[in-house]
What does this fold into?
Amino acid sequence: MSMKPLMICETLLRDAHQSLLATRMRTEDMLPLCPALDEIGYWSLEVWGGATFDTAIRFLGEDPWERLRALRKALPKTRLQMLLRGQNVLGYKHYPDDIVEKFIQLAKTNGIDVFRIFDALNDLRNMEKCFEVVKAVGGHVQGTISYTISPVHTDAAFVQMAKDMKSMGADSICVKDMAGLISPYIAYSLVKALKEEVGLPVQLHTHYTSGFGTASLIKAAEAGVDVVDCAISAMSMSTSQPPTETLVAALKGQPRDTGLDLAKLADIARKMTEVRKKYASFEAGVPPVDVNVLQFQVPGGMLSNLVGQLRQQGAMDKYYAVLDEIPRVRKDMGYPPLVTPSSQIVGTQATLNVLLGERYKVIPEEVKQYFRGYYGKPPAPMDPVIQKMAIGDEEPITCRAADMLAPGWEDAKQEIGDLAQSDEDVMSYALFPQIAKPFLLRRKQGLGGKEEVAAAIGEALYQQANSRDAKPVMAAGPAQEGSMWKMAARAGIQRGW
It folds into this structure.
């Protein structure tokens, strides 16, 4: 077993505020923290990807590329890491290979060193292109296992997946436990198996939702994990990561002593405590520990969004009925891990099933596309009866979904025209046309990017494009889960709600 110091990836600038503050932390509040963060000696700082790109444009009126460049300049000593959704890039659907390739090239040029690449279904075909391009541009390929629990998700299956990712060119393996499900002893056994049988560095990412967090990281350290994800204490726990300082203190003087300076970390925590007060209106409001996650496997962001949406509908009395329905829908769909975008797909269908009082009375188009195979191959066979309800006698595709997509870069470039001043602008439009176009238009007109304006324009365009004068019964939620409610809204529109 390795006795090297345990290394830490700090999530403060990405997943921590995505989990606790609806991804609303602004670049102006990140930059003052950077000099101190850069002196700590982290293995990496997670600063980009996930929902941050979408949210920066949609709600903050910020250019995510400018944020990345500013952080790269402010953090010259530390590796910068991003979360990449495989063929989904940073969106909720598959993009063509030329978009994927160009995105990775731009991300690397603008400052990303480590690409944590995952697929919502753990379908390696949806990760292959990303691996290939990251290798070509000289980035670090972190092949990622979306950790979940089901009859088909076993240590042996995860180890085999890691071996396959190694053969695809992975530089390291990440166990991404997005719902905080991994218990201390499972963390030990899985990490030990990965270290012994795969032979690549292993990183563990978990959330504190279940209360397992710190204990699981310590057991993983005992098993030889190389890097773990933590969040500075002022932005830790609940649906975020375990606190950095707690782990550093727990391992002090032990074989895996991190060697990090607690006083320096405490100083960052004090500063972040003050910054967090500015975002009080975006607090998720979920309990410090929610053991419901162990039963329903619902990630924290999905859970808090579900609560908000049910409140809007005056349907909070249906909360536990929806939670009960989510595992049933997940089983019907072949046990997908609940992570973007599969969490939205499963969550939307479960909510409709409960609110309409009849299972699969309404099936959104995204759910039909899932059953058609356009999101990839599920971990287990889908329920044939439910599949027939969704798509009739259609035969699902068996190829890689992106093989069905025509190239998109040149079309995007032509469509956005002179509103785009750079390839980065074109890419923002290619990924999120409905929000990037008004953002780029406001910039050209010299208007400020106020959050309310950005949200209103983006939502108005969405409604114009989709409603045809019909009003959806559900409003969009936070950016990281908003598409879940738009799916439901579209389904309602189609059925004439």
The first strand starts at residue 7 and ends at 10. Confidence is low (pLDDT under 50) at residues 467-481, 492-497.
